[in-house]
Design a protein that fits this description.
Layout (H helix, E strand, L loop, with lengths): L12 E6 L3 H12 L5 E7 L3 H10 L7 H7 L2 E4 L6 H10 L3 E5 L6 H14 L3 E4 L6 H9 L5 E9 L11 H17 L5 E7 L4 E7 L4 E7 L6 E8 L3 E5 L4 E15 L2 E11 L8 H15 L7 H19 L9 E2 L2
Parallel strand pairs: 1-2, 1-3, 3-4, 4-5, 6-9
Antiparallel strand pairs: 6-10, 7-8, 7-14, 8-9, 10-11, 11-12, 12-13
Helix pairs in contact: 4-5, 5-9, 7-9
Amino acid sequence: MSRNDTAARTDPMRVGVVGVGAMGENHARVYSELQDQEVDLAGVVDRDAAVARRVAAEYGTTATDLETLLERCDAVSVAVPTPAHVETVTRCLEAGVDVLVEKPIAPTVEEGRQLARRASETGQVLQIGHIERFNPAVQTVADLIEDVEVIGIEAERLGPPVDRTARGNVVFDLMVHDVDIVASLLGSEPDSVTAMGTDDGQYATATLAYDDVVASLTASRVTQKKVRKLTVTAAECLLEVDYLQQSVLIHRDSYPAYLVDDGTRRYRHESVVERPRVDNGEPLRYELESFLEASRTGSEPEVTAEDGIRALETVQTIDSLVAEDEPAAEREVEAQ
């Protein structure tokens, strides 16, 4: 159903979810919670009919097929497995329906570009589900770094798998979040990339070099503690982000001091630590609200297809390096 005169829309926004596994079910939940914002969850689709019926019953909607859903909806979330992104998203766009597709945008960069072209041709909104962009702590840091000289960035995304029998790609599943965050903070693509991995690729590190900034990323499914942290080193301060706590610390004016205690001389560093206000909330809700606003107005989404392609290009480079057998020192390649 094509979007008509969205700026003057007064009736509820009709939305749906295609693929209601773990992530897709959360999309259905949040859409159902947005009824006070004139949002109507018109239906859900899943290849497992029993799962679709269960989720539909949970969130007060109906389970249906894709063709019927697209006839009902103005916008949909697509949370199907990545190999099905191209076919599913293309069908949605050609039906005149706006799409938020979970990351990565597509299995390959060329297929991602194909989807970007199709969205442009149909005039539909295509937003990529890089959810950490909408973490309130990240948005706070994005504002703060506008006034500082960034030197380096470190990101850690570590922990054991939720399902210990699953061994998905740690670069595509986890590191991609931080690849996108770094790109959005710096506003550019890396000049070069080095990477290595261990434990059958379940632990990976990458170093991304920009003009005067170095970003070091680590992702792991074999670390027995869940860690989601981002550290930005600037000439003026050090910014620490805890994704899980949605908190930001700013360290300034660090200086050494010598203390005498009971005749013993001790050395320590002291610094001023600031805690800027962070308006905490669920990143997925913020992401879907942003998508629906772009759909209502026909404006450019906050995370564009081009952003998704840029992240995919970088993680493909990292993944290819992690998979190689050569020594790490031989793996540096020019980023595409």
